[in-house]
Write a structure and sequence with these properties.
This protein is an alpha+beta fold. The chain is built from one helix and two strands, in the order E-E-H. Helices cover about 40% and strands about 30% of the residues. Strand 1 and strand 2 form a beta hairpin.
């Protein structure tokens, strides 16, 4: 299984995206997917 955690910073204008998966490549792909979806929603 894998998961993604999104967290808004209270001190900086950023959102942290943390992912865990079986492999680093899978985690990187999750981060890319969530980043793209967030940017598209602007």
């Amino acid at each position: 299984e894998s998961w993604v955690h999104l967290r808004k910073s209270n001190t900086e204008p950023i959102i942290r995206i943390i992912a865990e998966a079986h492999t680093k490549a899978e985690a990187d792909e999750l981060v890319k997917k969530f980043t793209a979806e967030m940017l598209a929603s602007n």
